[in-house]
Amino acid sequence: MEKIKIHIYTGLLFITLGVVAVLVRRKNPGIEWVEYISDATGTVGWAAVFTIFFSFIFLNSRKWKFITPIISLLFCWSVEFLQMTNIPGNLEKEFPPSHYLLGSNFDSADLPWYGLGVLLSWFILLKFVDKKMMNKNGYSRNKISSK
């Protein structure tokens, strides 16, 4: 249960970051650096939320530390490259909320921001989830105690 709470809190942190970025952008439209920071923050937050999602899915796997960032980054980049096609635009016409998941236009400047979002959230999860996976004697759940 504690691992679920960590995932929820980390997700809420990055969602809040994205909401603040949107609010700042709406209050200051037309200022180039505000728009750039807002876009970057939203991209980092989007990548972080999906990293948390994939981490939650793979948490019971022995290789979740290795799998999570790779799958997350591949997913984010795949969605970004999908924007080079007309699929997201056509889907948005049929179902407008799909824009929030698939976006609308390709921007190569987003690619490194996805990497930063994946890394930030992954490091937060490693720091807290690894500690929760340790038992009270300080041994990992996978190690055999010498008693």
Structural description of this entry:
- The protein is mainly α and 147 residues long.
- The protein is built from 6 helices and no strands.
- The chain has helices at residues 2-27, 32-58, 64-82, 87-94, 98-102, 110-132.
- Helix 1 (2-27) packs antiparallel against helix 6 and helix 2 packs across helix 3.
- The chain starts with a helix and ends in a 15-residue tail after the last helix.
- Mean pLDDT is 78; it is low at 134-147.
Q: Give the helix tally.
A: 6
Mean pLDDT: 78
Helix amount: over 70%
Oligomer: single chain
Order of helices and strands: HHHHHH
Main sheet makeup = none
Distance between the termini: 28 Å
User: What's the shape?
Assistant: globular
Please report the total strand number as a whole number: 0
Backbone CA Rg: 18 Å
Residue stretches low in confidence (pLDDT < 50, at least 5 long) are 134-147
Main structural class: mainly alpha
Task: Label this structure with key terms.
147 residues, mainly alpha, 73% helix, disordered C terminus
Summarize the structure.
This protein has 147 residues and is an all-alpha fold. The chain has helices at residues 2-27, 32-58, 64-82, 87-94, 98-102, 110-132.
Please describe the topology of this protein.
Layout (H helix, E strand, L loop, with lengths): L1 H26 L4 H27 L5 H19 L4 H8 L3 H5 L7 H23 L15
Helix pairs in contact: 1-2, 1-6, 2-3, 2-6, 3-6
